[in-house]
Each structure stands twice: as C-alpha cells, then as structure tokens.
C-alpha cells in the first residue's frame, strides 16, 4: 500500500477497534488512557506501508481485538509491547524515594557538566533525572529543551521553579547545581489525550555547547517518513542507534504514575534498536532523536522494556516539529 491507502486502512481499523473495544473489553483492561491498542503506519522495505498494530502483553482481551482487526486488513505489521512508560530515571519521577543504583548503571553523562551540552543529566529540582535534549531559542534567548516530565514533573510545578544539572538522582542540588528555571511547558491533563511531552528551561548562562557526538551541530528538522536510521545521546544509555519502525501511531498509552495516570498520545513515532542493547532506558527521556545525517526527527519520551527485533524494548518519540511549534521555539 502507498501512504494514502495505508491511512485509509488505518482510519477504518481505528473505527473497528473502538467498536470491538466497547463490546468486548473489560474496563480494567484499558485503564485511564483508553485502549491499549495503538494503530499507525509501518514502513516496508520496498517503500510501501502496512498497518502498524501494537498491543500490550498480558491483556488477552486486547490481543483478541488486535487479531480481529488484522483479519480485516490486507497487510499488517503486528507487534507486542510491554507496558509503555515515561523514561525519566525511574517510574516515580519525584526525588523521594531516591533510586539507589540508577547512576551506577548509566553509561551517559551523569556528572556536573559546564558548559551545558546535549545528552547530559538534567531535571526539575524535585524530579529524579532525565536528559537535556537540545538547545532552542525563544524570543532570541537560549533555553534547554527536554520533556514535561523531566523539567516540570507534575501539574503542581510552576514557571520559575529551579532546574539543576545534574538531576537530583545524580547528585544535583540547589543552589549549587542550578542552571536555570522552568520557563514553559505544554500542559498534560491527568488521564487525558496528548500529542507532545515537552518543556523548556531558561538558562542562567547563555554560553552552551550545542554540538552532538559524531554529527556535530543539529539545526534542521524533517518529517519522519519511516524506516530512517536514527541515533540519540541520552543520560543513561549514551549514544545508541535504531530504526524508525512505525509512524503516525495513535492511541499510544503511556504510564505517568500517580500524578497523571495513563495518557493516550496520537501521531507518535516508534523506534527499535539496531544494536544488541536497548535504544533507550529510564533517564533517557528528553533526548533528541536524529537521522544519522544530523537532521532532527523527534523528542524521546517513553518506551517499553520488551518488544522490538532484539527483545530489548521499543521507544516512542514526539515529532520534533510538533514539539517546536507547541513551544514556539527554534533549534539553536
């Protein structure tokens, strides 16, 4: 199928999945975020597209829905995922209780780094740790870009709250390690629907190092077509490589813990590792995902610990243009 045909099939499959869910699935299986069945487009080696069908392991009723949907479409790429959750340093993003071994397992930058650069540990003063993904300009001023759940954490956080580098889980403390303040975020509503998980911090020191390992400065963006070879540099797994395995995924249900519950995201991008290890792990939230030629594609925010070709999990990213537009910023 070409992309337009695949989109038509997806629209039909969405209607069918919702009808079947209402009739056959127990409320306890879908939670606050709606159906645990995500549908999108899966790129194929010949340049065509199949319907991407993603369902969560451990939910027999959802697996049954997935089978019924697949039986009605001409071509489908079906994958099971583990529970998808945000990828700050641990599932509970608040500092207390502090995770005892996350820093010891991290391969990336968990220490104090000046000048600031992409890929290092950063967070709201009351959050564990995530990744500084990129530098952006808003009204001519340099800010740090990461996720809502890294730079804000909860709806109770306020503009002006302190941001520290490294994040508190990596030993960051205020005022010693303060690097800026929360400047803006795209709101997330408890149990609601969303398209991006992003926030920016106004930096105290405007002198930064915006270059990435290997590719250098990243200043351009592109819409993901699917199948791209990609990379990222994150606080936990450092530089990893992967491939885009699905685009335009709707109803990606992501766990946010007690404060926000489960949120359903539309128009997401899926990446799987092309190495022996995972593409991302907890603490990599906020990483910029880019094509291997240095073009930005998305902002990493969630993942599962199972699924994917090598079984190490699948990663989910917001399209970068949607992130930049929502915040009204441009890449430095």
Question: Would you kindly provide a brief summary of this structure?
Answer:
By secondary structure, the chain is α+β, with helices and mostly antiparallel strands.
General description of the model:
The protein is of the alpha+beta class and 332 residues long. The protein has one domain: Trypsin-like serine proteases (Thrombin, subunit H), CATH 2.40.10.10. It has helices spanning 3-24, 27-30, 60-71, 102-105, 148-151, 320-327; strands at residues 37-43, 49-56, 76-81, 85-86, 121-124, 130-131, 134-138, 141-146, 162-164, 178-185, 193-194, 199-203, 229-234, 238-250, 252-255, 262-265, 268-273, 288-291, 296-303, 314-319, 330-331. The chain has an eight-stranded antiparallel sheet with strand order 6-5-9-10-12-8-7-21. The protein has a six-stranded antiparallel β-barrel with strand order 13-14-17-20-19-18. The longest helix has 22 residues, at 3-24. The chain starts with a helix and ends with a strand. 52% of the residues are buried.
What descriptors fit this protein?
single chain, 332 residues, alpha+beta, Thrombin, subunit H, eight-stranded antiparallel β-sheet, six-stranded antiparallel β-barrel, 21 strands, globular
Principal-axis shape? globular
Which homologous superfamily in CATH is the superfamily? Trypsin-like serine proteases
Instruction: Describe the sheet with the most strands.
Output: 8 strands, antiparallel
The rounded Rg comes to: 19 Å
What's the rounded overall pLDDT mean? 91
The count of DSSP E runs of length 2 or more, i.e. the number of strands, is 21
Low-confidence spans: 95-102
- SSE pattern, N- to C-terminal: HHEEHEEHEEEEHEEEEEEEEEEEEHE
Beta-strand content estimate: 25-35%
The level of helicity is 10-25%
Fill in the CATH topology.
Thrombin, subunit H
Q: State the helix count.
A: 6
Number of domains: 1
State the secondary-structure class.
alpha+beta
Strand order of the largest sheet: 6-5-9-10-12-8-7-21
Look at the structure and give the CATH class.
Answer: Mainly Beta
Query: How far apart, in Å, are the first and last alpha carbons?
Result: 38 Å
Per CATH, the architecture is Beta Barrel
